[in-house]
């Protein structure tokens, strides 16, 4: 196997695994927070707006860890500096 | 094995594993939130519309992590830049 | 092993594993939501129609992650672009 | 090993693993929903018909993920397009 | 190793693993539902017939996933189409 | 290694693993159901006969999944069609 | 390695693993049922005889899955049909 | 490696692993039952003799699964039929 | 494989795995804290501002562990000292 | 590697792993029983002597599974029949 | 592979894994403590300042274990004594 | 690798793993018992001496399983009979 | 690979893994204790000083296990006796 | 690889893993006991001195299992009898 093949294969595999593993934690965490938010609204309907606002700001923060993974995953596929180097080095 | 075969095999395997692992977290998180929503409606029927609205906005946010995985999976199958490169390089 | 054999073997294996792993999360999540729905109906029978409606819309959303896996699985078996390429390349 | 042997071995192994792993989630999810249904009937016997109806519609939805696995498993054994290709290619 | 040996070995191993893994989920799910049924009967003896009827219909549904595995397992041992092909091809 | 040795070794290993893994789920499920039955009898002694009857019918159903494994295990040792084929083919 | 050595080694290893794994589920299940029985006796001493009787019949049923494993384990050591075949075939 | 060495090594390893894995389940199960027994005595001191008697009969039953493992382990070390065969065959 | 290829492949794989594994803990931890915050607001609406302020300061602290991983991941892709060394050494 | 080296290496490794794995279950089980005993004494001080007596008899029974492992471990180090055989066979 | 390549590859991989694994525990621990702090503030608003102060001192202590990992990770990338040695030894 | 090296390497590795794995169970078990003891003292201060006495006798029993591992670990390092044999055999 | 390379690679990898794994337990344990401390302060504000003092002494004790790992990790990087030996032996 | 290299590499790896794994159990156990101690002080402030004293004696006992690991780890690095033997044997 030449260098280009190895780098491409590793990039493809890593990009997939990164977002796959990286989506487990945020999805579970957001699901838990969302469940508690609905319970809190049912318990204290008058505070629904405060609860909802805090919920969405917090969800955005949890989502940020999934987005880190998505960013790395996208960089590996579309803006991979190692791949660009080997393309130039091997006259790709 | 030539380069094309390796890249294709890795792409196929990664595409499947990505969506398979990536669906576990969102499905469990959404299931939990949905379960709590039903419990909240039963407890506070008058707030059903607020609860349902918050639920579906939240579910969409949780679903987004599954969609990241689906997007990566689809890119790897139908718009894989590494595959396109090797097709051109090897005159595919 | 020639290219066609490798691509076919990887496609078969990935198709099976994708739907197998991808059915665990949705099944558990749906089971949880369904269980809570029945509990909510028993607690608040007058809201049974609201609960049931929310339940089935939510279940459809959870089911969607299983369907992503099923779609990828079917694509890999019946509309696999990599397989089509190798069939043409090798005059299959 | 020739191509036919590899494809057959991978198909057999994948077919078994797919339904084996794919039955864990639905069985646990259905068991949980069923348990809660019985508890709900004991708590609110007057709603037994509503609960039972919702239960069986919901169980069918959970069962659907097991059926996806069973369908893929059966396709791999009895209608495997890759196997058919190799049978023709090798004059099987 | 010739083709017949490989196919036979893979079939034997897969048949065993399929039913072994496939019995874990249904057994746990049925055990849970059964436990809750007994608890429900103790709590509401007058509804014992409704509970028992719902229990056994539900258990049959859970059992179905174990039966899928058993069917695949039996097919692999006694009606394996790949094995039949190789027996004919190799004049077995 | 000749074919007979491979088939025998795989059959022995699979037979043991099948019943070993297959006994975990049923044993845990039956233990849970039995525990709940005793609790139910203590709570509602007058219903002891109904509870016990439902318990043993249910246990038989859970036990069935263990028996599937035991049947496959026994078939692999004493009525293995693949083994019989190789005995004849190799003049065993 | 000749055939006899392989068959013997696989039989020894499988016999040990079968009973080792197979004792985990029954032991945990029996421990749980036993614990609940003692709790039930403390709660309803007058029903001690009914509880104890149900307990021991149930324990025997749980124990049966351990005994399946023990039987397979003993067969593999002392009445292994594959071993007997190879002893005859190789004039052992 | 000659046959005797392989059989001895496999026997030693299997004997150790069998009792090691086989002691986990019974120890946890007995610990749970014992804990509940003490709780039951504290709750209902007048029934201490019944509880203790049931406890020790039950513990013996749980212990039996550990003893199965210990028996297999001892057979593999001190009365291993495969080892005896190879000693005779190789004039050991 | 030459040195550049190895270093690039390891860097790509490690960058992905680092952020993927590193996002699980923070996402779960933040989800838990967020869930409790919503519950606390529902319980004590008058303290919503104190709770929210403490929540976001705390979330930032939890997020810091995810950011450590993101920093290492970015360093490995865009400012990798080992990669720079090999580029110079091999006249890349 | 000659036979003596293999047997010695396997014996050392197995002896260590046996007691290491075998101490996990008993330690957890005894810890649980001990914790409950202290709770029971605090709840019913008058029964302290009965509880303590039952506790120590029970702990001895749980400890027995750890001792099985310790015995096997010691036999493998100091009274290993396979090792003795090879010492004699090789004139050690 | 020459020495420099091996040391660099191991350093890159270890640096990533160290911070990735090392962030799981602190993130979960901090999330738990933060969740309880918010609950405590809601329960006892008058003690908010004491709770918050104790929380942040404690969080700093938990964070210290993540920082240990970050320090080791940074040392491995930017101040690795083994790497420096090989650079000098090989005239890098 | 000569015999002495293998035996020494296996002994070192086993000694470390034995005490490492063997300390997990006792530490968790003792922590649980200690936690319950403190809870019991707070609940029933008058019985503090009985509780403390029972606690320390029990902890010693739990600690014994860790000591078994420590003993085996020390034997493997400082009084290893296999090592002594090879030292003599190879004139070490 | 020469000796120096092996020792350096193993030292780097072990140093990272040691602190990474070693930070999981202390971080979770400290997080739990901290959470309970905040809960205790909210419940009994008058004892805040006693609780805080006990908390920090205890946290230091838990932290000690993380520090053991950090010490070993630092010794392996900066004061590794094996590394020093090979540097001298090979004239490094 | 010569003997010295192997022994050194195994010693380094084992020393790190031993303390890393060995710190998980004690840290979790101590964290649990500490958490309960704080809860007990809040519940029964008058017994704070008894609780604290029992806590620290108990923590020392739990810590002892971590210290066993630390001792073995230090012996392997600084007083390793196998290493000393090979240094002398090879004139190191």
UniProtKB/TrEMBL annotation, chains A, B, C, D, E, F, G, H, I, J, K, L, M, N:
<keyword id="KW-0066">ATP synthesis</keyword>
<comment type="function">
    <text>Key component of the F(0) channel; it plays a direct role in translocation across the membrane. A homomeric c-ring of between 10-14 subunits forms the central stalk rotor element with the F(1) delta and epsilon subunits.</text>
</comment>
<feature type="transmembrane region" description="Helical">
    <location>
        <begin position="55"/>
        <end position="79"/>
    </location>
</feature>
<dbReference type="GO" id="GO:0008289">
    <property type="term" value="F:lipid binding"/>
</dbReference>
<feature type="transmembrane region" description="Helical">
    <location>
        <begin position="6"/>
        <end position="28"/>
    </location>
</feature>
<dbReference type="InterPro" id="IPR035921">
    <property type="entry name" value="F/V-ATP_Csub_sf"/>
</dbReference>
<keyword id="KW-0472">Membrane</keyword>
<dbReference type="InterPro" id="IPR005953">
    <property type="entry name" value="ATP_synth_csu_bac/chlpt"/>
</dbReference>
<dbReference type="GO" id="GO:0045259">
    <property type="term" value="C:proton-transporting ATP synthase complex"/>
</dbReference>
<dbReference type="Pfam" id="PF00137">
    <property type="entry name" value="ATP-synt_C"/>
</dbReference>
<keyword id="KW-0446">Lipid-binding</keyword>
<protein>
    <recommendedName>
        <fullName>ATP synthase subunit c</fullName>
    </recommendedName>
</protein>
<keyword id="KW-0406">Ion transport</keyword>
<keyword id="KW-0375">Hydrogen ion transport</keyword>
<dbReference type="InterPro" id="IPR002379">
    <property type="entry name" value="ATPase_proteolipid_c-like_dom"/>
</dbReference>
<keyword id="KW-1003">Cell membrane</keyword>
<dbReference type="GO" id="GO:0005886">
    <property type="term" value="C:plasma membrane"/>
</dbReference>
<comment type="similarity">
    <text>Belongs to the ATPase C chain family.</text>
</comment>
<feature type="domain" description="V-ATPase proteolipid subunit C-like">
    <location>
        <begin position="13"/>
        <end position="76"/>
    </location>
</feature>
<keyword id="KW-0812">Transmembrane</keyword>
<dbReference type="InterPro" id="IPR000454">
    <property type="entry name" value="ATP_synth_F0_csu"/>
</dbReference>
<feature type="site" description="Reversibly protonated during proton transport">
    <location>
        <position position="63"/>
    </location>
</feature>
<comment type="function">
    <text>F(1)F(0) ATP synthase produces ATP from ADP in the presence of a proton or sodium gradient. F-type ATPases consist of two structural domains, F(1) containing the extramembraneous catalytic core and F(0) containing the membrane proton channel, linked together by a central stalk and a peripheral stalk. During catalysis, ATP synthesis in the catalytic domain of F(1) is coupled via a rotary mechanism of the central stalk subunits to proton translocation.</text>
</comment>
<dbReference type="GO" id="GO:0033177">
    <property type="term" value="C:proton-transporting two-sector ATPase complex, proton-transporting domain"/>
</dbReference>
<keyword id="KW-0813">Transport</keyword>
<dbReference type="GO" id="GO:0046933">
    <property type="term" value="F:proton-transporting ATP synthase activity, rotational mechanism"/>
</dbReference>
<dbReference type="InterPro" id="IPR017708">
    <property type="entry name" value="Alt_ATP_synth_F0_Csu"/>
</dbReference>
<keyword id="KW-0138">CF(0)</keyword>
<keyword id="KW-1133">Transmembrane helix</keyword>
């Amino acid at each position: 196997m030449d260098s280009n093949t190895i780098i491409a294969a590793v990039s493809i595999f890593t990009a997939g695994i990164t977002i796959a593993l990286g989506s487990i934690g945020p999805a579970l965490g957001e699901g838990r927070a969302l469940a508690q938010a609905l319970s809190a609204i049912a318990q204290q309907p008058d505070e629904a707006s405060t609860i909802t606002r805090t919920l969405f700001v917090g969800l955005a923060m949890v989502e940020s860890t999934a987005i880190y993974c998505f960013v790395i995953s996208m960089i590996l596929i579309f803006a991979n500096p190692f791949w660009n180097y080997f393309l130039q080095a091997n006259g790709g």
